[in-house]
Amino acid sequence: MSHRPGQPVGPDRPETRQGPVAPGLSVLVIGPGAVGSWLGGTLAGVGYAVTLLGRRPRTGDDPVRLTVEEAGRARTVPILRVADPRDVRPGVGLVVLAVRAFDVPAALAIAARWPEAPLMTAQNGIGAEAAARAARTSPLLAGSLTAAVELVPGGVRRLRSGGLGIAALPGSGSREAADLASRLADAWTAGGLRSRVFPDAAAMKWSKLLANLVANASSAILDMDPGGIYADPAGYRVERRQFREAVAVMRALGLVPVSLPGAQTTLLLRGLALPEPVGRPIVARAIAGARGGKSPSLRLHVQGGGGPPTEAAWLNGAVADAGERLGVSTPVNRALAALVDEVAGEPSRRAWFRGRPDRLAETVGAV
């Protein structure tokens, strides 16, 4: 059965949005998890031919369509799921890497089948862009998704509105990448994912890193919800120390934090700059309702039984590594990155920290 791009499929033919169509542009998403499915599904809903490439299909997934849910409503979009790169549609015009940070090298090896295609990274943390630039001469873009999304049977659901930042990477093909970023931002916005093009990819990625740091490592270590961590005096001090270190690294890099669609990073930094008795209750309330009920990524990794390595190396670890190169002290971020991998691999260590922000604060030196 064939379908026109953007045409809803399925017996009930649920609503689909119409938007700018890129005739002939075939988009390959490597990594059909929640992020990849949402990015690909949104483009498919406005007319792009999208293929999701993963190691193996999930049981029950339709190979030619995807359900996209948000705000209690569902729509179905045409999409192709494949597990073999040889089954990807010909004429790939964009490759999107939507794998975890530690899988980027393997994903880039797969993407090497389409060496001339523009490529967009969509990872949390710092490092995917440098790896992509080292591996390719094609136009490169960076993406920063702030929407909270999760996989559901047959598709993907958005839990919190959020948005998407897009930026062209400097180097080979940067002008083509900038033009493509504008087109994609229009397409994703038309599909319901508010998007904005940023002039500085590094500032955008580091600002998204600040958002990713929010009660991420500490939630994985303590097995606590973010709101509870920020409400606790010891937990709050750990969080504030890691942010101060990260901002100091950004300053050393010559970067200024910016707010992304759906992630008001600058407001968070203002709240953390207030005296603790004033700032803690304000920030704790904001954090408690900011994720749409979804746990931070590192906590989900540990809860799901995933061992080391975790993405902490590309989050807190990236702050610590950059600080070491620049002569900026980052002991809390270095300790958090190590502790996440420890609790991921040692259940007894995780049990010792569970629900005890005071132990975490003492261990990382944030008492």
Order of helices and strands: EHEEEEEHEHEEEEHEHHHHHHHHHHH
The DSSP helix count reads 15
CATH superfamily of the largest domain: NAD(P)-binding Rossmann-like Domain
* Top-tier CATH class of the largest domain: Alpha Beta
Name the strands of the widest sheet in spatial order.
5-2-1-6-7-8-11-12
**Major sheet description:** 8 strands, mixed
Mean pLDDT, all residues: 89
Distance between the termini: 63 Å
Helix fraction bin: 40-55%
Overall geometry comes to: globular
How many domains would you count in the coordinates?
2
The Rg value, from CA coordinates, equals: 20 Å
Going by CATH, the architecture of the largest domain would be: 3-Layer(aba) Sandwich
Q: Examine the coordinates and then state which fold CATH places here, giving the name of the CATH topology of the largest domain.
A: Rossmann fold
Note poorly predicted spans: 1-24
Q: What's the β-strand tally? A: 12
Helix and strand composition category: alpha/beta
